[in-house]
Amino acid sequence: MATIAVIPYQPWRHRGFVVDGAFRWRLGTRPLDVADWIEFDTDADGDDGWVAEKATIMREHADTAFAVIDGIEPDCQEIADALIDHLRRRFPDRFDGIELDRSLHPLDAAARLVPDDLVVMVERDGELIFGGGSVCFPNRWDLRSKLGRSMSAVHAPVAQLNEQLEQAVDSFFDRLEPERSFWRLGWGILDTAAGYAPLDGTAAPRPERPTIDDLHVRVERETLRRFPRTRAVLFTIRTYVTPLTTVLADPDDREAITRIIDAMPDDVRAYKDLTDTIRTHLVG
Predict the structure, then answer these.
(1) pLDDT of residue 71
(2) From residue 92, how far is each of 46, 87, 96, 117 by CA, in Å?
(3) Based on the number of CB atoms within 10 Å of its own CB, is 218 exposed (0-12), middle (13-18) or buried (19 or more)?
(4) pLDDT block averages, 10 residues each, the chain of length 284
(5) Cystine design at 40: which of 44, 83, 173, 277 (Cβ 3.0–4.6 Å)?
(6) CA–CA separation, 91 vs 183, rounded Å?
(7) How far apart are CA 79 and CA 67, in angstroms?
(8) How far apart are CA 29 and CA 266, in angstroms?
């Protein structure tokens, strides 16, 4: 459980989640300096860090954590080569001389080097579809169910997201080009500190009645890049987890999170699994 003492981002403080008293999903993309593409922090390394945990998850749950459509190897090789080049340049002490494990699928090999999950969208028949991913730290979703689907189909289970953002998302990807990359943040509150939280029954059992000590804030920093040769789009998803009590110790954070959750309609709150127990802890 690679928790971090202080999450480097507080997305709940950003404007736009509540508009005229109503909750709104936010795309919230910002230009990315590619020098900052991948982030390492104190939670990435060590025996219980994200990178080491990936090796365990891939050994025990590879069918859950890795899946790709057929014919995606050229797209993933372009991405893997770019990632290797970045790591050598940005973190020379850590990655000088590093090479991909050629015995693995290029996406799998690349993902094992970094704390981020990697998800690839590919161009097929003029449409951007979900090509696959190495997702060792799923936030209550199922990787295999996304394969071959369009962006709107991938987002379909998310309450009200397509209704509010489908056009904006489609427009964003239509305009995304290799020379300009972006990043964004997502967040939620879970009743576990574990990064590995899929929907296929292979995660650790959840507490029946979560206490405040069970609850953790999970922030996901996503980067979005399109690659020039194959036109594939890569999402990196860097997960940060910290106890909810740590975040709520700041009155401004408590107020912001409570305001957003109170503004959520029931279906959004249910999708995010924000139970009455969690709301009681927030206002308590």
Answers:
(1) 96
(2) 19, 7, 5, 21
(3) buried
(4) 89 94 94 97 90 95 97 98 97 93 97 98 94 96 95 93 94 96 96 92 87 93 98 98 95 94 91 76 65
(5) 44
(6) 20
(7) 16
(8) 26
Name the token pair of 195: 């990064």
CA-to-CA distance for 78 and 15, rounded, in angstroms?
Answer: 36
Residue 278, pLDDT score = 72
pLDDT of the residue at 27? 94
Name the DSSP letter for residue 88: H
Output the pLDDT for position 210. Answer: 85
> What are the backbone dihedrals phi and psi of residue 63, each rounded to the nearest 5 degrees, phi first?
-65, -25
Whether residue 140 contacts residue 221, with contact meaning beta carbons closer than 8 Å, is answered with: no
What pLDDT, on the 0 to 100 scale, is given for residue 275?
Answer: 67
Taking a C-beta distance cutoff of 8 angstroms, is the pair 210, 191 a contact? yes
User: CA 211: distance to chain centroid?
Assistant: 25
Q: CA-CA distance, 85 to 79, in Å (whole number)?
A: 10
Burial (CB count <10 Å: 0-12, 13-18, 19+), residue 217? buried
